[in-house]
Write a structure and sequence with these properties.
The protein has 450 residues and is of the alpha/beta class. The protein has four domains: 146 residues, Alpha-D-Glucose-1,6-Bisphosphate, Chain A, domain 3 (3-Layer(aba) Sandwich), CATH 3.40.120; 87 residues, Alpha-D-Glucose-1,6-Bisphosphate, Chain A, domain 3; 107 residues, 3-Layer(aba) Sandwich (Alpha-D-Glucose-1,6-Bisphosphate, Chain A, domain 3); 75 residues, Alpha-D-phosphohexomutase, C-terminal domain (TATA-Binding Protein). It has 14 helices and 18 strands. A six-stranded mixed sheet has the order 1-5-4-2-3-6, sandwiched between helices. Strands 8-7-9-10-11 form a five-stranded mixed sheet. It has a three-stranded antiparallel sheet with strand order 16-18-17. Helix 1 runs parallel beside helix 2, helix 3 crosses helix 5 and helix 5 crosses helix 6. The mean pLDDT is 94.
């Protein structure tokens, strides 16, 4: 059982366990000892990036100290998208990478994501091994002699490397003629994303590019895409592009200011790949949270759908094991496995724009490939994550709602992997039916879990 790592690394309130400098220092030492045991030895390197949260400085310094004390070199690249770290690990030939971010969460949260030398997030087994090193007692670094201590470097050309990589994913296709409203969520991509779209010829109206350490994701970015709807219409833009705090996911808006979520982006990408004979094994991978409308649309197109638990790491694991190349989540993770090892909001947006240009269609036309079922989501703060089946009244209400919905809807109740939240989702053909069911489930959960 993991003590620290959740579904997407370690996450929590900054300066509160486990997101403290003490834990970060120990984690750095544990990572160093793990890589030493794997035969990497002193002098191997780790890439460290971060988003724009104030607490990033604290964690970056502590992690660096731990790693250097174990003889590992650190290449710090500063504020950089999570997918950029995944790419830079391979570009620098590093042993692994660390991204300091809490993704779409508020600024007072932070987190630590670990990547292996192949650019993929570390598997559960490796995270457990690192935890075991941390909690088995004090990590002794006295065997690392002074001359063997690692060094910390600030890498100045890291942005340029990722910019060229991102552009090359669409063969540097010209985006001249496109007008884009780009919301960077005051996050990791605030500097790098505008340059990429500008260098490819697009006209860019920038939003969310003035981070101050506490405004990341605040009323901006992928969690609030409707906030730029008016700007898209005002500037007569072709699209709106909303990244989240670490830029591993994207939500877009069409020229009418209508939000196009991850399900619709996945649908249009899967159909496009199938039409061009590039959809591996004729399969799209997504999670149980995806809209039933996506499943129906794929069935109509003759595309098989594989579903996983919630979290892009589980989507990626299924894609790797099955040899699939298109997958993602409703929340905006779109994974083009032919190019990247994790969700990449910038590269996803680039591929959508290239598709628009190649097909000579606007985003609204492409997004019209599926019909969404009404889907209602509610979150409830809970004291403990008691298994749902161990709460008889709540479990009974869920089963009653499922029976009522039949094949025309569903109920999903799960705990967040990173927060003390119960997430409730009800989907039905009729909105009022969905609303009635979710209220029943929510009320029962509130009575029994808070």
């Amino acid at each position: 059982m993991k003590k620290l790592f959740g579904t997407d690394g370690i996450r929590g309130k900054a300066n509160t366990y486990p997101i403290t400098p003490e834990i970060a220092l120990q984690l750095g030492k544990a990572i160093g000892l793990y890589y030493e045991a794997k035969g990497h030895g002193t002098g191997s390197s780790i890439v460290i990036g971060k988003d724009t949260r104030l607490s990033g400085y604290m964690l970056e310094t502590a992690l660096t100290s731990g790693l250097v004390s174990m003889g590992m070199d650190v290449m710090a690249v500063g504020p950089m998208p999570t997918p950029a770290i995944a790419h830079l690990i391979k570009s620098f030939g590093a042993s692994g990478g660390i991204m300091i971010t809490a993704s779409h969460n508020p600024y007072d949260d932070n987190g630590i994501k670990l990547f292996g030398p192949d650019g993929y997030k570390l598997p559960d087994e490796t995270e457990l091994n690192i935890e075991k090193i941390m909690f088995d007692g004090e990590i002794n670094s006295s065997h690392i002699k002074t001359r063997q201590l690692g060094k910390a470097y600030r890498i100045d050309d890291a942005r340029g490397r990722y910019i060229e990589f991102a552009k090359s994913s669409i063969k540097s296709t010209s985006l001249k003629g496109f007008k884009i409203v780009l919301d960077c969520a005051n996050g990791a991509a605030y500097c790098i994303a505008p340059w990429i779209f500008k260098e490819l010829g697009a006209e860019v109206i920038k939003v969310g590019v003035e981070p101050n350490g506490v405004n990341i994701n605040k009323n901006c970015g992928a969690t609030c895409p409707e906030n730029i709807s008016g700007l898209v219409r005002q500037h007569k833009a072709d699209v709106g592009i909303c990244l989240d705090g670490d830029a591993d996911r994207v939500i877009m808006l069409d020229s009418y200011g209508t939000v196009v979520n991850g399900d619709r982006l996945l649908a249009m990408c899967a159909i496009d790949y199938k039409d061009r004979g590039k959809l591996n094994n004729n399969t799209l991978v997504t999670t149980i949270m995806s809209n039933l409308g996506l499943i129906h649309a794929m069935k109509r197109e003759g595309i098989h759908v594989e579903t996983t638990g919630v979290g892009d790491r589980y989507v990626i694991e299924r894609m790797r094991s099955g040899g699939y190349n298109i997958g993602g989540e409703q929340s905006g993770h779109v994974i083009f496995m032919d190019y990247v090892t994790t969700g990449d909001g910038i590269i996803s947006a680039l591929h959508i724009l290239r598709m628009m240009k190649r097909k000579q269609k606007n985003l609204a036309e492409l997004a019209n490939c599926m019909e969404e079922f009404p889907q209602i989501l509610k979150n409830l703060i809970v004291k403990e994550k008691t298994p749902i089946e161990d709460v008889p009244e709540l479990y009974s209400v869920i089963k009653e709602c499922e029976a009522q919905l039949g094949e025309d809807g569903r109920v999903l109740v799960r705990y967040s992997g990173t927060e003390h939240l119960l997430r409730i989702m009800v989907e039905a053909r009729d909105y009022e039916v969905a609303e009635s069911c979710i209220n029943q489930v929510y009320n029962s959960a509130e009575k029994n879990l808070t």
